[in-house]
Design brief:
This protein has about 400 residues and is mostly helical. Helix content is about 60%, strand content about 0%. The protein has 17 helices and no strands.
Length: about 400
């Protein structure tokens, strides 16, 4: 089962006895699982690349999509759905449908006690509220700022993956929490992103993702400052920390570690939406793969680099899980997803799918992003969600990595 730093994992300090009782995952088993996932991702990338060469080019392309939203309700609805998977750099309504279908299947299975489904939204039972609040925040962002799409792409997606779901996790379920998180997210994150793109990213020659995730970090900090003052919000009481369940003595520990690693890497693909579930991740990957095969000119901004991005994302998560596996001990957590939604795909796009961008971005992102996220999140005061540290780490590691990769020989 997967666990996370939803509330306080970065600040927990398990006692030495607990550490001895639950040793970290074995290096060999973890590496084996990581290698298996990367191999499968590489095979998928090769297949998609081959199929993309013979695509029927069915349906609309990305070019002109933003401008068409003003006159076409269908294009606007597609843009809204595409926003749900833009954090992974997919921007596709088919990917969004896959994401939602996988999450719904996981929700159904979890409620029926099916262990193969893994956890959903960290086992809190708050997934419906997380999805509702995030979707409402996304709708507000599109309604209020969508008129700017006449000028081309705008970061309308940004509130879906930070303030709204984080407020639900911190303050619990209910319509007051849901709507408050949605409003705070839409009116802090999106305006900040619109401001930081021309004032920070463009002058420094950095990709827009740096401005977007920096806006998420700063806006989330501002939103939680406001949330502390709202009389109708009350911090959710944390459940007592249960002792981590120990694996049964029987079975092959190497195989168990490998399977855990594979599931952990897969769940990283939907960590940014606060779903963190393997079925949801499988759904979004299948959805973007289908979108690419139908028309490579649509997903991932029409770059035709979906296979390269998928491989780099699997690689950066796998490297991160192997490197930082000790942080998962005793129900702990590491932000191994941070590079998956920032450094790795940004490097692929910046260096046009070259091996320099794929391998370099994946490696440097896995090395830098998780420890930076952990260091910042551990120092946040009570009532501030670790998403602040995670997104700050994305901005710092992306801003540091991409110029460095440019110094390498081509």
């Amino acid at each position: 089962m997967l666990t996370s730093a939803v509330d306080d994992a970065p600040r927990r300090r398990p006692d030495p006895a607990a550490r001895k009782a639950a040793p970290e995952r074995g290096a060999f088993g973890t590496a084996l699982g990581a290698f298996a996932v990367v191999t499968i991702a590489g095979m998928l990338a090769l297949v998609l690349h081959a199929l993309g060469q013979h695509s029927p080019r069915f349906g609309p392309a990305f070019e002109g999509w933003a401008a068409s939203t003003a006159d076409s309700p269908l294009a606007a609805a597609r843009w809204f759905l595409g926003d749900m998977t833009e954090p992974q750099f997919y921007k596709s309504e088919l990917a969004a449908c896959g994401l939602l279908a996988g999450a719904l299947l996981a929700w159904w299975a979890v409620w029926r006690g099916k262990h193969w489904a893994g956890q959903l939204t960290y086992g809190t039972g708050l997934w419906p509220w997380v999805l509702t609040s995030g979707s409402l925040s996304l709708l507000l962002s599109n309604v209020v700022f969508g008129r700017m799409l006449d000028d081309g792409w705008q970061p309308t997606f940004v509130p879906f993956v930070c303030v709204a779901p984080a407020v639900v996790l911190m303050y619990g379920p209910g319509w007051r929490t849901c709507v408050t998180g949605a409003v705070l997210g839409a009116f802090t994150i999106t305006p900040l992103a619109l401001l930081l793109i021309p004032t920070v990213a463009v002058p420094l020659g950095l990709p827009t993702v740096v401005a977007n995730v920096l806006a998420m970090s700063l806006g989330s900090g501002l939103a939680f400052l406001v949330a502390r003052k709202l009389p109708w919000l009350e911090l959710r009481k944390r459940a007592p920390q249960a002792q981590p369940s120990q694996p049964p003595s029987g079975g092959n520990p190497v195989l168990k570690d490998a399977l855990w690693t594979a599931r952990r890497v897969l769940s990283d693909f939907t960590e940014t939406q606060f779903f963190a579930n393997e079925l949801a991740s499988a759904g979004v990957i299948l959805g973007v793969a289908m979108a690419f095969v139908l028309n490579p000119a649509l997903p991932s901004y029409g770059s035709a680099l979906v296979p390269h991005i998928l491989f780099a994302q699997a690689l950066t998560s796998a490297i991160g899980v192997v490197l930082w596996r000790r942080w998962y001990r005793n129900g702990g957590w590491a932000a191994t997803y941070a590079s998956l939604v920032s450094v790795a795909p940004a490097a692929v796009l910046a260096y046009d799918g070259s091996w320099q961008g794929i391998i370099g971005g994946a490696l440097l992102g896995a090395v830098l992003a998780p420890p930076i996220a952990r260091a910042i999140s551990a120092r946040l005061p009570e009532g501030f969600h670790p998403v602040i540290g995670n997104t700050a780490a994305m901005a710092i590691s992306t801003a540091a990595t991409l110029p460095l990769l440019g110094l390498l020989p081509h």
